[in-house]
Specification:
Layout lengths: L7 H11 L1 H8 L4 H4 L3 E5 L3 E3 L8 E3 L2 E7 L9 E8 L6 H16 L2 E8 L10 E6 L2 E6 L1 E4 L5 H7 L4 H12 L6 H17 L4 H14 L6 H14 L7 H11 L25 H20 L4 H8 L3 H10 L2
Parallel strand pairs: 5-6, 6-9
Antiparallel strand pairs: 1-4, 2-3, 4-5, 7-8
Helix pairs in contact: 1-2, 5-6, 6-7, 6-8, 7-9, 11-12, 12-13
């Protein structure tokens, strides 16, 4: 049986909801004085309705959080943080970011800081702004961008600390490294796990992080996950997982009650399928993956290779799902 894991996007959303303070410090270090003050977080609805019933009027932002400062004399009104995780090349991405901004601004009437996390394997893809110009009518919308592949594995290893997002991005960089084999990734995962051990997380936090990094890393051979499981048991000296598949299925099923995890993925301008992970890893996730693949094939905008990369499956599996819908 093939192992089926959540997408990096889903794991990112989970971490944001589990520890958004660490997210703020990692992706917005230039605003560190703000994060050192006292503030409250309110996760907003990611569903952004258009003001008019237009075609495709719903859009799903990944993470929208309202931040209300308690002791800041400069920002007396709440602000909104928008985080968008993008794992494939999409030429319409900048326009989509602008759409999210417009709808969020209209809906919440707050100042917005937007950050895109680009997790594809193509170094050239780096959207940072959206521009419109029609006979002198112009606009320019710019947003923050973090390009994972522009960081080397060694650089991320040196920068890793007890911030869970420094660990997440480190493992994400290993995932998208297509030129290396499983043995190379396993050697680096041992270093990641040894780093996690040195962070002295609580047992509950430790298990949470381990489930995330195991779900995030991508191997070519299923046996590599079994080897990784053995490394985990060796380093942490206790039986943290009886079986990777069973343990992940149970854990993600427990997380299904969290609003931040949702079934479905956004492909370009397609609508997400926000149903939650209530059916568990083995059945619910596989079903949503197949649905997403079918939808992507129907759109006709993406190659089989791009779809396979996004959903973490083989090209053969994409073709198999495509043949079933014919």
């Amino acid at each position: 049986m093939s192992l089926v894991f959540p997408t990096p996007e889903q794991l990112f959303i989970f971490l944001c909801r589990a520890d958004f303070h660490s997210c703020l410090y990692y992706f917005f270090p230039f605003l560190a004085p703000l994060w050192n003050s006292v503030f409250e977080l309110n996760f907003l609805s990611e569903t952004l309705e258009a003001p008019l019933p237009l075609s495709g009027s719903k859009r799903y932002a990944d993470v929208l959080v309202e931040v209300t400062f308690k002791d800041n004399i400069i920002y007396k009104e709440p602000i909104i943080i928008h985080l968008e995780f993008q794992s494939y090349v999409d030429n319409a991405f900048a326009h989509r970011m602008y759409t999210y901004f417009c709808r969020s601004k209209e809906l919440y009437q707050k100042n917005i800081i937007a950050q895109a996390i680009l997790a594809d394997s193509f170094a050239y893809f780096l959207p940072t702004f959206y521009e419109y110009d029609f006979h002198g009518t112009r606009l320019h919308y710019q947003f923050h961008t973090y390009k994972v592949i522009h960081k080397s594995v060694e650089e991320l290893a040196d920068a890793a600390n007890n911030n869970v997002f420094s660990i997440f991005i480190w493992v994400l960089r290993l995932r998208i490294e297509s030129k290396q084999n499983d043995e190379w990734k396993l050697n680096w995962m041992r270093k990641v796990l040894e780093h996690i051990r040195q962070c002295n997380f609580t047992e509950r936090r430790l298990k949470e992080i381990l489930h995330v990094v195991v779900g995030l890393i991508k191997f070519k051979k299923e046996e590599s996950y079994r080897i990784l499981e053995g490394i985990i048991k060796e380093i942490f000296n206790f039986k943290i997982m009886t079986s990777i598949l069973e343990s992940l299925e149970k854990w993600y099923q427990e997380q299904g009650r969290l609003d931040g995890l949702r079934e479905g993925w956004k492909l370009g301008e397609m609508e997400g399928m926000k149903k939650g992970m209530k059916k568990g890893m083995k059945k619910g996730m596989k079903k949503s993956v197949d649905q997403g693949i079918r939808r992507a094939l129907q759109l006709g905008k993406y190659s089989e290779a791009e779809i396979a990369e996004l959903f973490g499956v083989s090209i053969e599996y994409v073709r198999k799902v495509g043949n079933k819908q014919e």
